[in-house]
Amino acid sequence: MAKKSLIKPQPRLSAGMDVLKTGFQFFIMDAQQKGLSPHTIDSYSTWFMSYLAPFARYYAATFPQNLANPEKGLCVCDLDNLLVVSCLREWLLQTKNLSDYSVHSVINYYAIFYHCFSRHGLISHRTFANKKVEQPIKTLYTDEQLLKLLEPPKDKNNFSEVRNWVITNYVLGTGNRRGSIVDITMGDCRDLAEHNHIRLTHTKNGKQQIVYVPEAVKHILLDFIREWRAQADDKDFLFCNQFGSKLKASTLTAVFSRYARERLGKNGPTSLHLLRHQFAATYLRTGGHIEDLKKALNHSSFSQVMWYADKYDTPAPEKNEPFNIFHTLAVPQKKKLKPKK
After folding, report:
1. pLDDT in tens, 29-54
2. How many whole angstroms separate alpha carbon 140 and alpha carbon 274?
3. Quick count: other Cβ atoms within 10 Å of Cβ 224?
4. Vertex 257, ends 256 and 258: CA angle to 5°?
5. By C-alpha distance, which of 37, 131, 44, 47 is closest to 89?
6. Phi-psi region of 136 (alpha: psi -120 to 50; beta: other; left: phi over 0)
7. Are 302 and 292 in contact (CB under 8 A)?
8. How far apart are CA 178 and CA 182, in angstroms?
């Protein structure tokens, strides 16, 4: 006798879920059930609070006639209206003053949000045309700027200053993401002294990683641990705040920005993530293999690594010069012109 299949009830868009905020809670629960990393889920929350929620208020106030239920404001059932997507794009460009690439990223989040509900049959399926925008090449730190960032702090008793300096060295030496850095515990550093290894238990793709730490950075980390974290337990965080608690990823971005501004001035770059690009560019330019770079950066695919190779892997002159066309052409010698008599 054929085995009976369990018939699951078709989910319906309840009155409570139709409200955008309640629908977002459903979206987050769905992401958690899919096993997405906490950092990815945090990025969804940041996207919702920074972009979709304020846009929903703007849209409800500006186009109430286009809403299914004006009293509720922008609801999940309104998401498949192409006018909403078009208005969101214009609102991002004008109100948030975002670049084309940033707008493209925000719309991608919108599509993920929308497809969550269409996948569950709560709203109709629709494909959003999001014009592909090439990721801009970021101007890296100059050697002079890097030397200023890496100059040891004058006040050795200022924990925040010392910690920020150590983090700068660490990111330049490993290329780790900020989300992984704030989750490093003292237990993850168990193999640092003997094997130059740090274990990352929380990464963007959810895969644990063993990171090689360069010798120079290893000694900086060991000195930092000896001076500031000697009494910490294995579960305590390596790069904590001044009270010993975990740093938030957003806080790390802010404190590094302030650290860089103090050293480079208000016109200098202040991006912590740019140090990751710096690591990738240096790795490729000095002969590192692209597969090894993929492992070092903990990318799931080669797409972003190939972008690094395409934008930052500039061939050395000694590799380019032998293939120059002027080596294959017989260039005639210029004759000196003699004045007419």
Report:
1. 999 998 887 878 888 999 999 999 99
2. 7
3. 20
4. 90
5. 131
6. beta
7. no
8. 6
Rounded Cα distance between 126 and 21, Å, is 21
239, 167 Cβ separation under 8 angstroms: yes
Residues 164 and 227: their CA atoms lie apart, in Å, by 15
pTM: 0.75
Place of tokens 């560019």: 281
Q: Which of 170, 266, 251, 260 lies closest to 218, judged by CA?
A: 170
CA distance 174 to 213: 6
Instruction: Please state the φ and ψ torsions of residue 185, each to the nearest 5 degrees.
Output: -105, 170
Q: Tens of pLDDT along 83-111? A: 888 899 899 988 988 888 889 899 999 99
The residue written with tokens 């929620």 in the block is 53
How many CA atoms does the CB half-sphere of 239 hold within 13 Å?
Answer: 27
Extract the tokens encoding 41.
């889920």
CA distances from 118 to 12, 67, 79, 127, 178 (A): 11, 19, 10, 10, 33
Cβ atoms of 192 and 281 closer than 8 Å = no
86: Cα within 13 Å, side-chain hemisphere: 4
